[in-house]
Specification:
This protein is mainly alpha-helical. It has a single domain, classed as Tetratricopeptide repeat domain (Serine Threonine Protein Phosphatase 5, Tetratricopeptide repeat, Alpha Horseshoe). The protein contains 12 helices and 2 strands, in the order αααααββααααααα. A two-stranded antiparallel sheet has the order 1-2. α7 packs antiparallel against α8, α10 packs antiparallel against α11 and α11 runs antiparallel to α12. It is globular, with a radius of gyration of 19 Å. InterPro entries: TPR-like_helical_dom_sf.
């Protein structure tokens, strides 16, 4: 059993842990979980970067639901380039650190998919990836509460929100929403305590959603569980319930 000293760490150490989580978000956690639509893209090309991001396939639609419709989606071209290549280009550019290039590719993907009435639930991970890119861009602004940082964080949250809107079971996107909300709460600092606690509770709610996903990857579940422990400790220290 954990003692109080083990579970309820000093606020400064908890802040350090949260910063570590945000670094994990930016460097290794892209919110990916492959649908049949996205998984098919990677199957056509064995590039290691794309494959590593799309190794999960737990919740893609069954073949008897809409296989004919999905086959049509796979054949969409943009300027004679298969949409699959547009997606993969975004993945590779994102992993290579070319954020603007990745966003251009993802936006091109979205424009084409939307113009062909592709069901957004089939490419929710594209929104999740865009959220991770925006989160990284926000980290490039070094001053707390800098408007550029705030704008990118807003774009990141909007993208992750779209991801879970179209696929509520995308647990990793819920974790990333929690991380961004915690970052907002941290920057409130000595501001109104009720707003800080509200941010903590919102982040906790996102983590609980992630923990409720039966098929979520272990890394996301582990991170969500650690965040809940830290959040509960900070809420307790604040004197709120």
């Amino acid at each position: 059993m954990k003692t109080n000293s083990q579970r309820y760490q000093p606020r400064s150490l908890q802040s350090y842990r949260i910063l570590s989580y945000i670094l994990l978000l930016a460097l290794t956690h892209h919110g990916f979980r492959a649908s049949a639509f996205v998984q098919s893209f990677v199957a056509a090309n064995s590039h290691s970067e794309a494959t590593s991001l799309s190794s999960r396939s737990d919740d893609f639609p069954t073949e008897d639901n809409n296989s004919e419709e999905e086959t049509r989606h796979y054949q969409i071209n943009v300027d004679e380039v298969p949409l699959s290549q547009t997606f993969q280009k975004g993945v590779v550019l994102q992993r290579a650190g070319d954020r603007e290039g990745a966003l251009d590719a993802y936006n091109e993907f979205l424009k084409a998919a939307q113009s062909h009435d592709v069901d957004p639930s089939l490419y929710a991970e594209v929104y999740a990836n865009m959220g991770a890119v925006y989160a990284m861009k926000g980290k490039g602004s070094v001053r707390p509460n800098d408007q550029v940082r705030i704008d990118y964080r807003t774009k990141a949250k909007d993208a992750f929100t779209e991801a879970v809107k179209y696929r509520p079971g995308l647990g990793s996107a819920w974790v990333n929403l929690a991380l961004l909300t915690l970052a907002e709460g941290k920057e409130m600092g000595g501001g109104e305590q009720s707003k800080v606690v509200s941010a903590l509770k919102e982040a906790r709610s996102c983590c609980v959603r992630a923990l409720g996903m039966d098929n979520e990857d272990e890394r996301s579940r582990s991170l969500a569980n650690k965040l809940v422990i830290d959040i509960d400790a900070m809420i307790k220290q604040s004197g709120s319930t």
